[in-house]
Write a structure and sequence with these properties.
2 domains; about 60% helix; alpha+beta; single chain; 13 helices; two-stranded antiparallel ribbon
């Protein structure tokens, strides 16, 4: 469960609002998420938005407020709005109090981070194609929107998700669900090249800005250590340098003073392996610069 879904510990753990990306590449937040984060009833947020719409120019409304819907717990379709940064800013002006100010700042941070991710993903796409390893599609649309991720590319993303879950002491499903919702897709297999690179940028942001997700008890069992370890191997095999499986295994065995990866069995041994892998990836990254 992410922090925005666990308001009881809101003051103890940093929160990050749930943003999505429109087809035009614009970061959006929803009225439903705003209600969750600010601790308001959703119908109150809808009411405030509809009051705003009456006062604002029609062209602004069409560009910044998108009427949508969601399925509630009773399996009924209910209305909601998707808001741009400008729309959120106008709406949040009416939210007062110390906690409201803190939440506004978190939204600003989230919008800034997502806009930087999108900007960097777009500007660095050509350089990062080998990083995600794309399989060209025969479509006439731009390659970055039609290219499919290879099996190797998908494994790298899944592996990195396992590592981010490990860092945040949460479950893989928490990280995956958050990323899928951000991109507006239901499965990693739906990723095209652009989405894949965007996902990697989002995950890198989570890596350097930890604790956006509420820790979950007993989630770091042996499998979590193992998945993070082998996930980093899959990630490194594709990360810029395209290291081979043999190279990485030899690197780990040399640093850990073991004969094979099969000797790694305990949490402590996997943790040591994770540190070795992470340092190796950082070393590769530094050398490429």
């Amino acid at each position: 469960m992410s922090n925005i879904e666990n308001q009881e510990i809101i003051e103890e753990v940093m929160v990050i609002p749930q943003l999505t990306i429109s087809e035009q590449g614009t970061p959006l937040t929803s009225s439903l998420d705003i209600a969750n984060v600010f601790g308001k009833e959703h119908f109150h947020v809808l009411r405030d938005i509809e009051n705003l719409l009456k006062e604002l120019p029609e062209d602004f409304n069409q560009s910044n407020f998108g009427l949508s819907s969601y399925i509630n717990q009773q399996n009924k379709e209910q209305p909601m709005y998707n808001l741009t940064r400008d729309a959120f800013t106008l709406l949040a002006m009416g939210f007062t109090g110390k906690k409201a100010l803190a939440f506004k700042l978190k939204y600003i941070e989230a919008f800034n981070a997502m806009e930087n991710i999108i900007k960097n993903t777009n500007s660095n796409f050509e350089q990062s194609q080998k990083y995600i390893e794309l399989e060209p599609d025969k479509d006439i649309l731009p390659r970055n929107f039609t290219s499919k991720l290879s099996e190797k590319g998908l494994k790298a993303i899944v592996g990195y998700m396992h590592f981010i879950a490990f860092l945040n002491n949460t479950t893989y499903e928490t990280i995956e669900n958050y990323c899928l919702k951000t991109l507006g897709i239901s499965s990693i297999n739906e990723c095209n090249g652009y989405m894949g690179n965007t996902l990697m940028s989002i995950l890198s942001f989570y890596q350097t800005n930890m604790f956006f997700f509420a820790p979950q008890e007993s989630c770091l069992d042996l499998d979590s250590y193992k998945n993070a370890f082998y996930g980093l191997i899959d990630y490194w095999k594709l990360y810029k340098t395209n290291r081979s499986q043999h190279y990485i295994e030899l690197y780990i065995c040399t640093k850990a003073d073991i004969q094979s990866l099969e000797q790694i069995q305990t949490k402590e041994q996997y943790l040591k392996g994770i540190f070795i892998l992470y340092k190796g990836i950082l070393k590769d990254s530094t050398h490429e610069k």
